[in-house]
Amino acid sequence: MKRSQWMTGVVVLALVAGGAWWWSQRSAQPAVQYRTAPIERGGLQVSVSASGTVNPVTQVSVGTQVSGQVRAVYVDFNTEVKAGQLIAEIDPQTFEYRVSSAQADVNAARAAVAIAVANAASSRANVSRVQSDLAEAQRTHERNLSLVAQGFIAQSEADRTRAVLVSAQESLRAVQALVGVSEAQIQSAQASVAQREAALAQARIDLSRTRITSPVNGIVIKRTVEKGQTVAASLQAPELFVIAQNLSDMQVDASIDEADVGRIQPGLKASFTVDAFPGQTFEGEVRQVRKAATNVSNVVTYVAVVRFANASGRLLPGMTANVRVVTESRESVLKVPNAALRVRVPGVEPASAGPADAPAAPASPGRAGRIHLLDAKGQPVAYPVRLGVSDGTATELLVAPGSSEAGVLVEGAQVVTGVTAKASGPRTSGPRMSF
User: Fold this and answer.
1) Rounded alpha-carbon distances, angstroms, from residue 266 to 325, 326, 374
2) Is there a contact between 321 and 252 (Cβ–Cβ < 8 Å)?
């Protein structure tokens, strides 16, 4: 019995000693742990991401300028067409009647011109006759005046011939006025002919517009009309077809946020993906940044046009593209993870990166930041740094050659990216077990 008690005491003492040793080792461990990553050297690309729509560079909406019933449709979706090719036709019967009516009006106006010309010729003939009568009356009156002076005839005869002469002069003025009226009637009739001919030309144009033709070489990507359908062009030309001029040369109309549009310039390289071909990247180039803004729910965007070659024809109009435009590129630069720039260790003040008597180097351009490196004892030391461009994952470190920090901020140096607190002290809560 005593031996059993003695063995129990030895076991208890051993357990107490082991617990004391474990507690001392646990207390000696640091209260926090630091996650680190190395400073790396490599390339950085700054980009702007946006979404857009794949569109043909040139697409033409084909409509109709006249109203009527569609008599025939000669093309369908994906039909290749040539410029001037007949693609649809509107019933021309009404317009043919209008042409016939306008032609009849022209004929009537031309006949009116002929009548006016004939009247003018008659008036000029009357002028010639009256002029002859006037000349005869003039000679008779002068002869009578001579006879009166010689006493061969009475004065009354001279007065009569004077009255005849005056009447002939008035008749000449009257027929000359009629000639002027006839000339005016000719001009009016000719103007009427021009007016009727214009109406005839308009009727013929309307008749020709019943034949819907393709304005460009291309492919039909949209058709909204069927045979027998009635189209009305009273207010605006209805859209019948949409023809893409060239599907091998296309563009992405990308919506760029107003915060990023200042970095987008024509000539920048761009890449994009579409859901139809996952895992494939297509290359293009920014050709235009349109100045017209679009405001949707107080979000202002601008359209950047990214041109690309679609030689294979796989990309189709209307596809949604996820665009990435590279705005800046850096090669072989020091960079740190962005997580390192967000770490803050309480109580750690920025330290000098070199000896106090090190020569001061000119300040590097860029924005200010702070990173933490571990010293020989594993404790974090803060260093103020100058930062360059960022790709969203890593940020460029701007280190001036010969500066005090150049010997510390080097490739491979471990920078703190996170802090993890460790539990210390005895447990004060949790399940308890009884034996």
Assistant:
1) 11, 12, 45
2) yes
Q: What is the pLDDT of residue 420?
A: 80
- Could you tell me the residue range of the domain that residue 171 belongs to? 94-207
Q: What's the farthest any 2 CA atoms get from each other in the chain?
A: 204
φ, ψ at 60 (rounded to 5°): -115, 130
User: Would you say residue 353 lies in a domain?
Assistant: yes
| Residue 382: alpha-carbon gap to chain centroid | 49
247 sits in which H/E element: none
Hey, what long-range contacts does 89-94 have (CB within 8 A, 24 or more apart)?
89/210, 89/211, 89/212, 90/64, 90/66, 90/209, 90/210, 90/211, 90/212, 90/231, 91/210, 92/207, 92/210, 92/211, 94/68
User: Residue 254 forms beta bridges with which residues?
Assistant: 52, 304
The Cα 160–Cα 183 span in angstroms is 35
Report if residue 21 sits inside a domain.
Answer: no
Locate tokens 């207010």: which residue? 235
Burial of 281 from C-beta contacts in 10 A (0-12 / 13-18 / 19+):
exposed
Residue among 66, 62, 49 nearest 272 (CA): 49
CA distance 339 to 36: 10
Run of H or E including 115: helix 93-150
Residue 31 above 80 pLDDT?
no
Q: How far apart (Å, rounded) are the C-alpha atoms in residues 198 and 189? A: 14
The structure tokens listed for 164 are: 């005849």
Q: Is the entire prediction scored with pTM above 0.70?
A: no
Q: Tell me whether residue 431 is in a domain.
A: no
Question: Could you tell me if residue 132 is inside a domain?
Answer: yes
| Helix, coil or strand: residue 181 | helix
Q: State how far the Cα of 390 lies from the Cα of 367, in Å rounded to an integer.
A: 11
Give the model confidence (pLDDT) of 332-375 as tens digits: 999 999 999 998 887 776 655 444 333 434 444 578 999 999 88
Structure confidence at residue 28 (pLDDT): 46
